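Friendly challenge for the regulars: who can give me the structure tokens for this chain first? No prize, just bragging rights.
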Amino acid sequence: MTVDDTGSGTGTPRGPHGRDTGGGAGASDSAAPDGAAPGGGRGPASGAPERGLPDLPDRSERGGEPQEDGGQTEPKQDPLALRIEGLILGAERRYTPFQAARAAGVSMELASRFWRAMGFADIGQAKALTEADVLALRRLAGLVEAGLLSEAMAVQVARSTGQTTARLAEWQIDSFLEGLTEPPEPGMTRTEVTYPLIELLLPELEEFLVYVWRRQLAASTGRVIQVADDEEMVDRRFAVAFADLVGFTRLTRRMEEEELGELVEAFETTAADLVAARGGRLVKTLGDEVLFAADDAGTAAEIALLLIETMANDGSMPELRVGMTFGTITTRMGDVFGTTVNLASRLTSIAPKNAILVDSAFAAELVRTGEAPASEADAAAAEEPGEYRFALQPMHQRPVRGLGAVEPWLLTRRD
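First reply, four minutes later:
Bragging rights claimed.
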């Protein structure tokens, strides 16, 4: 049932797409259930008269008493925060969650699912939503109605996009405000510098974001369509690896927070650059650990060895250890799951310093592709020196928590 089916309207004039053309409070405010919505603080209480975005006072007027209207106290909003929000969103607040759902032609329940999936907090019936929020709801619902996405898939799209862009936005704002907001005049605060900074950066960052997303989408699509059959498109076989800084917990007790943050950033940057340059994919970073994947074992082995060698040549960095496996991986929302991933994590925990442990499937794949010899006898019989890139040394069988006994192999670069 859509919001319009609830009978909450009382004859209020309607504009295009079902929006109210009048500004008065109607039954939609008093009868609407709580919903979720992006951004903004809590607005007028349910049933309060509706208002548009108030005129914004200058700096000297900030901090005044909250306005009152019809016995209801309007929660105080920081005018500068509202100006910045309007600049970024490109529109002013004009809808409650209930009104936005009605204007988009979707049920309040579905609107709430979409908003929460995108990572936005419930705001009751505050008037905090814009035309862009209505359009986003209409687009997602339209994909479902057209049969292009199931409702569950549309929610997943909202969730994956929300989680990814939330982290990106936090990183960008932290970085820009840290490095680019030296006050141009004495007495100016960082908050006051934020508005002109965002005004300059916003259009450029938006264009760059779309460009990178399209590039990544093209690369990901290309990998998927090369898979041999439809089943492997979801559960694919490839190499996955964890690279872990040794003794990181001890470092956290000895180093200052800023120094520790710089070390982690240097490690993540080094790993990300090496993984990308060699054709792998950085799945995620976990502070002292990175998870990466590659379509073939040889690529993953080269990346891991380069990571070990690069870190070993940097006296400021701790030792590194790596665990890698090859097999069927389940991918969901950009992450990877399954026994193959769990085993890679366990191998990392038992790997020696500055060493790489791989499972038997990874070793067998290197042998199959001719990148490592099955034995030293095979290596000695090679027709050309340097025919093999990697060397494999079997290690003693080890019990691995949750996975039983495994026989790891030590991976090294062949001289």
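The chain has 14 helices and 14 strands. Residues 1-74 have pLDDT under 50 and may be disordered. Your move, everyone else.
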